[in-house]
């Protein structure tokens, strides 16, 4: 078996927008280096100052160097059919695969990461960065942060790892069934092995234990592993993978419960890599307030945090349609509800009358009584029910509760008849969560699709 021990220098941290400035490849037969190749590469873009400060490579050095297209065939022939070995292998591999593809070559290699191998075969080190690991193991590095120097040091490290591998760790990692090579360099495979094949919520954490991403899964092991498949070269993905050091999880009885827990956890923790769920908010709400003359007034307005809304809507038109129905049904004033602004008095109702609340003809007490009746009817029409479903284990049941049109909470029980005496006795055993229209719509949609799980309260 032949290995290609690789190191590259680049203009930045992700392949889709950055070029390669230097490549070094050592072909290793499992005992020693049998062939070496190194070249500077003109990336056809300027070298950032901080890259020059780190590597010493500047624009002048690369002016007369070959482009990647010029050397692509030679690089492909060196790497093809070899085991691709590098320190943080997915970084080097993503760059070379991306740029080889742009030159018309499809790189398909098995991979070995010397960071992951070192953690397994030489445990207990304070750091597994190439520089600090080589210092700890007394491996000399000539020309640090240059491709040839780092590739030579990685080759010496790889020799040590081969010597330390008395239990076939490398062979196990190279099996097609092993997912080891696709995992981030700092994530131990044991974190994946302990994940169950159940619904739940997972948490990616950085080196300090800070949660950087929250996700939900129908199958925790399958979903978490899916994050690491493929070799997408964009910056967001590469930065994200380098950040992940740990995975924690919470098992849920159903995928719906996982969705709800995920939504609440993202709002609670605000992880830096969760973007889509952060942007979700229902857009408009129906509010009630008292004006300076004592009239209660309804208004549809943009959603405001920490304000008690009577009803929530996804669009302004949806809110106005709901409010128009209230006006007609309860003979409310369109002007006091902000649906008419130009006329001196509100438009006539179906019976041709204008009751005159907007001009003071209809008294505060009479008008407010009608509006309170409308609000009470809205409240009475809000559903209260429980969704009873599978639990986290065979002898357990899950319960989601909606009370007066708002999501109240969820929990788990072992007695199938725990709701026979109503909701009150079991409320204290439910975990209470924040309700919003996103969560409520999830629950209502699920209840409509699965009426057999519905328990009306």
Explain what the structure shows:
The chain is α+β, with helices and mostly antiparallel strands. It has four domains: 3-175, Nucleotidyltransferase, domain 5; 189-269, GIY-YIG endonuclease; 284-381, no CATH class; 385-456, no CATH class. The chain is built from 16 helices and 16 strands. The protein has helices at residues 49-55, 59-62, 68-79, 89-102, 114-121, 130-136, 147-164, 169-173, 189-193, 220-226, 235-243, 255-269, 276-279, 316-330, 364-381, 437-449, and strands spanning 3-10, 20-28, 33-40, 83-86, 110-113, 200-205, 211-217, 246-251, 284-290, 296-302, 311-313, 385-390, 397-403, 406-413, 431-432, 454-456. A five-stranded mixed β-sheet has the order 3-2-1-4-5. The protein has a five-stranded antiparallel β-sheet with strand order 15-14-13-12-16, covered by helices on one side. A hairpin with a 6-residue loop joins strand 12 and strand 13 (397-403). Helix 5 packs parallel to helix 7 and helix 12 (255-269) packs antiparallel against helix 16. The longest helix is centred in the middle third of the chain and has 18 residues, at 147-164. It is elongated. The relative contact order is 0.07. The model has no long low-confidence stretch (mean pLDDT 88).
Write the layout of secondary structure elements.
Layout: E1 3-10, E2 20-28, E3 33-40, H1 49-55, H2 59-62, H3 68-79, E4 83-86, H4 89-102, E5 110-113, H5 114-121, H6 130-136, H7 147-164, H8 169-173, H9 189-193, E6 200-205, E7 211-217, H10 220-226, H11 235-243, E8 246-251, H12 255-269, H13 276-279, E9 284-290, E10 296-302, E11 311-313, H14 316-330, H15 364-381, E12 385-390, E13 397-403, E14 406-413, E15 431-432, H16 437-449, E16 454-456
Parallel strand pairs: 1-4, 4-5
Antiparallel strand pairs: 1-2, 2-3, 6-7, 6-8, 9-10, 9-11, 12-13, 12-16, 13-14, 14-15
Domain GIY-YIG: 197-275
Function: DNA polymerase III is a complex, multichain enzyme responsible for most of the replicative synthesis in bacteria. The epsilon subunit contain the editing function and is a proofreading 3'-5' exonuclease.
Protein name: DNA polymerase III subunit epsilon
């Amino acid at each position: 078996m032949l290995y290609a021990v690789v190191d590259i220098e680049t203009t930045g941290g992700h392949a889709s927008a950055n070029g390669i400035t230097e490549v070094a490849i050592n072909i290793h037969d499992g005992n020693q280096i049998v062939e070496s190749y190194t070249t500077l590469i003109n990336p056809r873009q300027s070298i950032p100052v901080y890259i020059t400060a780190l590597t010493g490579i500047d624009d002048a050095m690369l002016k007369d160097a070959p482009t990647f297209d010029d050397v692509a065939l030679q690089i492909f022939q060196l790497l093809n059919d070899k085991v691709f070995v590098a320190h943080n292998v997915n970084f080097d591999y993503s760059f070379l695969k991306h740029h080889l593809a742009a030159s018309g070559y499809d790189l398909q290699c098995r991979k070995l990461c010397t960071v992951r191998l070192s953690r397994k075969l030489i445990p207990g080190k304070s750091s597994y960065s190439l520089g600090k690991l080589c210092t700890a193991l007394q491996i000399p590095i000539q020309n640090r942060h240059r491709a040839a120097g780092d590739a030579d040091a990685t080759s010496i490290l790889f020799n040590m790892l081969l010597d330390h591998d008395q239990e076939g760790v490398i062979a196990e990692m190279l099996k097609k069934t092993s997912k080891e090579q696709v995992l981030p360099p700092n994530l131990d495979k044991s974190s994946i092995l302990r994940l169950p094949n159940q619904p739940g919520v997972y948490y990616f954490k950085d080196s300090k234990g800070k949660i950087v991403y929250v996700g939900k899964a129908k199958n925790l092991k399958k979903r978490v592993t899916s994050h690491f498949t493929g070799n997408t070269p964009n910056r967001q993905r590469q930065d994200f993978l380098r950040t992940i050091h740990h995975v924690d999880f919470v098992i849920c009885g159903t995928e719906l419960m996982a969705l709800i827990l995920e939504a609440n956890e993202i709002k609670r923790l605000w992880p830096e890599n969760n973007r889509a769920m952060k942007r979700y908010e229902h857009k408009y709400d129906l509010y009630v307030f008292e004006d300076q003359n004592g009239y209660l007034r309804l208004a549809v307005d943009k959603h405001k945090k920490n304000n008690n809304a009577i009803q929530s809507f996804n669009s302004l038109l949806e809110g106005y349609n709901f409010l128009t129905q209230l006006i007609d049904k309860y003979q409310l004033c369109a002007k006091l509800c902000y649906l008419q602004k130009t006329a001196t008095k509100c438009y006539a109702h179906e019976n041709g009358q204008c009751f005159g609340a907007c001009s003071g003809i209809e008294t505060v007490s009479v008008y407010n009584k009608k509006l309170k009746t409308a609000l009470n009817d809205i409240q009475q029409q809000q559903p209260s029910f429980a969704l009873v479903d599978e639990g986290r284990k065979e002898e357990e049941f899950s319960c989601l509760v909606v009370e007066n049109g708002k999501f109240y909470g969820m929990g788990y029980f072992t007695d199938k008849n725990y709701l026979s005496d109503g909701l009150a006795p079991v409320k204290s055993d439910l975990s209470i969560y924040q309700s919003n229209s996103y969560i409520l719509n999830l629950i209502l949609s699920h209840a409509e699709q699965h009426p057999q799980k519905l328990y009306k309260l």
